[in-house]
Design goal:
It is a single chain. The protein has 614 residues and is of the alpha+beta class. The chain is built from 14 helices and 32 strands. The protein folds into 3 domains: 92 residues, Sandwich (Immunoglobulin-like); 391 residues, Glycosyltransferase (Alpha/alpha barrel); 113 residues, Golgi alpha-mannosidase II (Immunoglobulin-like). The strands form 9 sheets. The protein has a 7-stranded antiparallel sheet, with no helix packed on it. Helix 2 packs antiparallel against helix 14. The protein is elongated. 47% of the residues are buried.
Length: 614
């Protein structure tokens, strides 16, 4: 016996709703198919809401033969989104359907130099990820690629890989907790922690406390864990106070950090002296850029917590520190390697001519002005052409001559390791600095060189000889140096793709796409923190015939500030956002022209930039 089914209780009474896929990425085109009700409908309204039920797309759809389709760009917060269909005469929707919005960090330009860089880096760096159960608790970190501490984590190598691992790592805080727990009573931070919980400190170094500060600051900006950050601030206060009172690392005359005589930021003295920081002091440019940005970071963290007095004090301290450092170390072309505080005779070798790795930090950390940065970049280009070395990634250029007899170890000869060897992290910082300071063409050239290096060699060692051959010093050398690959990731994501998280968790994003310098006409870029759902995504298309650019964007945040690099010879004449004109400025960075404007982030938005050409 067949049952009689009331039409009112069947799909036909409610209509049909479907999409082309149950999941998608931000700025994907979603196609919605609507089947009208059995009674027949001429139109309906389609509304799309994000996971918080906030609508970001709504359109009336005309139905023909009781069917219709439309498209929209998926946008807004990650998670399950809602599509609602409402037919005429209804006060409540007739049908609804979810689709899932998710994404990972990716660059999709169609250029074989750029697109593989991020996945290659992620896959190789994950080989150096370590997860320990120490006596104090769980520790997650990333190894040094050449250390004798095979089962330990150097703070510096780990944190200097953060510009890359912040996009995929889920557990970013526990390792920093272990370092805070191991802080000495006087405020000093250890250099590293072993699997068994033991610690070590290289006494030559004066940078560990600023690295710790940067680690907490950058991790907090990713995770958004205000309570954790506030809990770490007292430890950072003690660490930075220690630096400013210990006579081994503070020069009261110049009011700047000092260190025992070393090769820039590295952890050994000339002559392998072991006086535990008691003499042979210098003020090195590498330390000054680090403490300048660490003081700024303290100001930003206190400001976020509403502690205005502390924030302003640290901000004033940072700027005064920068001024003292620049006045002492800038030589008119570059920053000096260091200034001697104790008399050291280098037997006629002139250190003032050395171009040191710390100069790249001076540019990316803001110690150098834009004009000073361009001077340094041009000096790198000049020396690279002059030397013919494989890459301009020098630790020192030139290194200390072997005739001085400072080191007997083969890996410390001139042109090796930190005495003139080529270090990928230096190249990455130089590349990002070039992209940020009006030398975009050179930055693209460097990034393409790096891509070719990875294709040819399959990885990144800690250092190379000037001819490009990998340099070895321990049995623990592996070709996945996070302190190196991380800096090139920043050059790709923040430099070329131009996405920088200004406010933490991508609430406020600075978006400076520089694809015009690479000749890329169409690109899609997504940046996402795996530890949460913070992300930003854009599509950029350049129409050279019409002299226009179209920028579609979305994200999880609130505000975006744009400065889009224009092709050579273009000048902006009009900028519209969702077909409404917006205020803009043409900003010159040396010979480069950017068009700058701002916008809130709400759903999928489209910017059209119209230009005139020479």
């Amino acid at each position: 016996m067949s049952l009689r089914k009331p039409l009112e209780a069947t799909p036909g009474a409610f209509g049909g709703l479907d999409t082309d896929s149950p999941s998608c990425r931000p700025l994907d085109t979603v196609t919605v198919h609507v089947q009208g009700r059995a009674r027949g409908d001429e139109r309906c309204t389609v509304r799309v809401c994000d996971p918080d039920q906030q609508p970001y797309f709504e359109q009336e759809l005309e139905l023909r033969d009781n069917q219709g389709s439309l498209q929209f760009l998926a946008a807004g917060p990650l998670g399950n989104h809602y599509i609602y269909v409402t037919f005429p005469g209804e006060s409540y929707h007739s049908r609804y359907l979810n689709f899932h919005l998710d994404c990972e960090t990716a660059v999709e330009s169609g250029d074989s130099d750029f697109d593989p860089l991020y996945p290659f880096t992620r896959d190789r760096m994950l080989l150096g990820r370590r997860e320990y159960e120490t006596p104090r608790g769980r520790f997650v970190g990333y190894i040094s690629a050449d250390t004798l501490h095979l089962d330990g984590i150097w703070l510096r190598d780990w944190i200097y890989g953060l510009p890359a691992y912040k996009y995929w790592e889920l557990d970013m805080q526990c390792g920093l907790d272990r370092f805070i727990e191991a802080q000495h009573e006087n405020g000093m931070i250890p250099d590293g922690i072993e699997r068994n919980g033991g610690t070590w400190r290289a006494w030559v170094e004066s940078d560990v406390e600023y690295i710790m500060t940067l680690g907490v600051w950058q991790t907090w900006k990713v995770t958004g864990d205000d309570a954790w950050m506030a809990g770490a601030l007292p430890a950072l206060e003690r660490a930075l106070a220690y630096v400013q009172r210990d006579e081994r690392v503070w020069d009261p005359g110049h009011q700047l950090v000092k260190r025992q005589h070393s090769c820039d930021t590295w952890d050994f003295d000339i002559d392998s002296a072991g006086d535990l920081g008691g003499g042979r002091h210098v003020i090195a440019n590498c330390d000054q850029s680090g403490y300048y940005v660490a003081f700024r970071a303290m100001g930003e963290m206190y400001a976020h917590l509403g502690r205005t007095d502390e924030a302003e004090a640290w901000t004033r301290k940072a700027e005064a520190y920068r001024q003292r450092a620049v006045e002492l170390l800038w030589d008119g072309t570059k920053f000096l390697h260091h200034v001697h505080l104790d008399e050291i005779d280098h037997d006629g070798f002139d250190e003032t001519g050395q171009l040191t790795m710390g100069n790249t930090w001076a540019m990316t950390r803001g110690l150098a002005s834009p004009e000073q940065a361009r001077s340094i970049i041009d000096e790198y280009r000049r020396r690279h052409a002059e030397t013919g070395d494989a890459y301009p990634w020098w630790s020192l250029q030139p290194g200390y001559p072997d005739e001085l007899g400072y080191w007997s170890a083969p890996f410390l000869k001139q042109g090796a390791y930190a005495n003139g060897g080529l270090m990928p992290w230096v190249g990455g910082e130089l590349c990002r600095a070039a992209l940020l300071n009006g030398r975009e063409d050179y930055g693209v050239e460097l990034l393409r060189q790096w891509a070719e290096h990875l294709r040819r060699t399959g990885g990144a060692h800690v250092w190379y000889w000037p001819d490009g051959e990998p340099g070895f010093r321990t049995t623990n050398e592996v070709p996945y140096a996070g302190w190196g690959m991380g800096e090139w990731t920043a050059a790709l994501v923040e430099g070329l793709a131009g996405i920088t998280d200004s406010g933490g968790q991508m609430r406020t994003v600075q978006v400076n796409p520089r694809w015009a310098a690479a000749g890329v006409a169409e690109v899609r870029t997504t940046v996402r923190y795996a530890a949460n759902r913070a992300y930003f995504a854009y599509r950029l298309r350049t129409d050279r015939r019409a002299a226009t650019l179209r920028l579609d964007f979305t994200g999880s945040g609130e505000q975006a500030r744009f400065a889009v690099l224009l092709p050579r010879g273009w000048q902006p004449t009009r900028v519209s956002l969702d077909e409404r004109p917006v205020e803009f400025k043409a900003v010159s960075v040396d010979a480069s022209v950017y068009v700058a404007f701002g916008s809130g982030i709400a759903g999928a938005q489209a910017v059209i930039i119209e230009c005139e050409t020479d």
